[in-house]
Design goal:
alpha+beta; 6-stranded antiparallel beta sheet; 88 residues
Length: 88
């Protein structure tokens, strides 16, 4: 799991009772990444303020993204082909 001292970029309500925290990534294409472990929802903010949520994503995928030096590659190879995305 993500280290408790990790900086939170900001929080955004994903419903009336839930909050999505996104953490800064700041690569060429990705600004921030968040994860709701109860709902298994991964949220990625891309450059240009595009935000997408992916459903039924295991926590291990989020952890891989947060520790990877090649975030875009993980998204292209492990997220996009396996999980449906919807714009937020």
């Amino acid at each position: 799991m993500l280290h408790k001292s990790a900086k939170v970029l900001y929080t955004r309500a994903i419903s009336r009772s839930e909050i999505m925290q996104r953490y800064p990534i700041n690569t060429a294409q990705v600004v921030s990444i968040g994860y709701d472990e109860d709902a298994l929802v991964l949220e990625i903010e891309f450059t240009g303020s595009r935000v997408y949520q992916y459903d039924k994503v295991p926590e291990t995928v989020f952890e891989e993204l947060m520790t990877s030096k090649t975030v875009e590659t993980v998204i292209q190879q492990n997220v996009n082909p396996r999980y449906s995305a919807r714009p937020v």
